[in-house]
């Protein structure tokens, strides 16, 4: 007789602080859902900008990282980009919060242009599944909803949030959009099954986290600890990989770009996985360079670095 698999850890219990935060947020969302999409997004932007000033949530982290990534920018330009990144984050948060109940037709109507979608169709037509890699750029949550609206059977690998009430709400939001949620602790077991069922599996692979297999690759010239799961599954299962960027346009709609993530095989599995991680990080960096105001600079991207990293390449 084999031992039963260990039960997953119980989710954290909601505290009174969690409940108060959640109640306030749901009240705001209830009001914003009555507004047109663009108006609600604009309110989200205004809320986000408050995080930059006067509240100052992670303002120093944001400005230091932007300055390190773009050393040619003046302090005034860095401050402008930082403020714009808070605006973008606020818009993304509110647009995601009001997404439940939005029809597939309305989701698709909020997209101005799409490039490279044939890569998605061809991969799923081959019947081997698909891995989608994205980053915290533009509105990655809307990108998942758009894929589902176009009929892509999609699982997304996610990490739980500190507030269990927010976490449960976001999980419901994703599922209402047609997206299945896979916890990162379950990804090793669930991902192969999903791929064998010819589903797409999505990873937002630009934040390091303790307990996840990772490798260090350059991001804006500094070593950044990056999850290697997408590369591992791609090579193990022999499935195609694409990089998805969801970019907010001036009129409030989105542009969606799909690019292949390809690496010539060398026969060295570990080296090939690292090459995959490097390649999708390079694609993300190119998009961030083109749209720096839409990146999530509030996260400490270079918090963990390899031993012996030169001082000028350490976390700014």
Walk me through the structure.
This protein has 316 residues and is of the alpha/beta class. The chain has one domain (16-313). The protein is 46% helix and 16% strand. It has eleven helices and nine strands. The chain has helices at 16-32, 37-52, 59-69, 75-97, 104-109, 117-125, 140-149, 164-176, 187-196, 229-237, 269-290, and strands spanning 111-115, 130-134, 154-158, 179-183, 200-204, 214-219, 222-227, 241-248, 254-260. The strands form two sheets. It has a seven-stranded mixed sheet. Strands 6-7 form a two-stranded antiparallel ribbon. A hairpin with a 5-residue loop joins strand 8 (241-248) and strand 9 (254-260). The longest helix is centred in the first third of the chain and has 23 residues, at 75-97. The chain is globular. Mean pLDDT is 92; it is low at 1-7.
Question: Concise description?
Answer:
By secondary structure, the chain is an alpha/beta fold.
Provide keyphrases for this structure.
316 residues, alpha/beta, seven-stranded mixed beta sheet, two-stranded antiparallel ribbon, 11 helices, disordered N terminus
């Amino acid at each position: 007789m084999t031992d039963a698999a260990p039960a997953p850890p119980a989710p954290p219990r909601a505290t009174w602080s969690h409940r108060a935060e959640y109640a306030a947020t749901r009240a705001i969302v209830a009001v914003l859902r009555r507004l047109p999409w663009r108006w609600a997004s604009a309110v989200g932007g205004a809320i986000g900008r408050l995080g930059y000033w006067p509240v100052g949530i992670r303002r120093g982290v944001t400005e230091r990282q932007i300055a390190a990534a773009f050393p040619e920018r003046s302090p005034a330009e860095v401050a402008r980009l930082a403020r714009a990144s808070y605006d973008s984050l606020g818009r993304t948060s509110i647009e995601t919060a009001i997404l439940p109940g939005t029809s597939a037709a309305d989701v698709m109507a909020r997209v101005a242009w799409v490039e490279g979608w044939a890569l998605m169709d061809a991969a799923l037509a081959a019947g081997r599944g698909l891995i989608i890699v994205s980053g915290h750029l533009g509105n990655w949550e809307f990108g998942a909803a758009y894929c589902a609206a176009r009929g892509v059977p999609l699982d997304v690998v996610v990490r739980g949030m500190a507030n269990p009430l927010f976490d449960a709400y976001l999980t419901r939001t994703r599922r209402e959009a047609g997206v299945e949620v896979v916890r990162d602790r379950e990804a090793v077991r669930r991902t192969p099954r999903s791929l064998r069922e010819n589903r797409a599996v999505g990873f937002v692979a630009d934040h390091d986290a303790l307990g996840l297999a990772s490798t260090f690759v350059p991001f804006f010239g500094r070593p950044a600890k990056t999850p290697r799961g997408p590369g591992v599954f791609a090579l193990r299962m022999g499935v195609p990989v694409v990089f998805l960027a969801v970019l907010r346009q001036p009129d409030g709609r989105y542009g969606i770009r799909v690019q292949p993530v390809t690496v010539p095989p060398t026969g060295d599995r570990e080296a090939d996985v690292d090459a995959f991680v490097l390649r999708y990080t390079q694609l993300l960096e190119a998009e961030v360079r083109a749209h720096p105001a839409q990146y999530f600079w509030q996260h400490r991207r270079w918090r963990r670095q390899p031993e012996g990293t030169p001082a000028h390449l350490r976390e700014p």
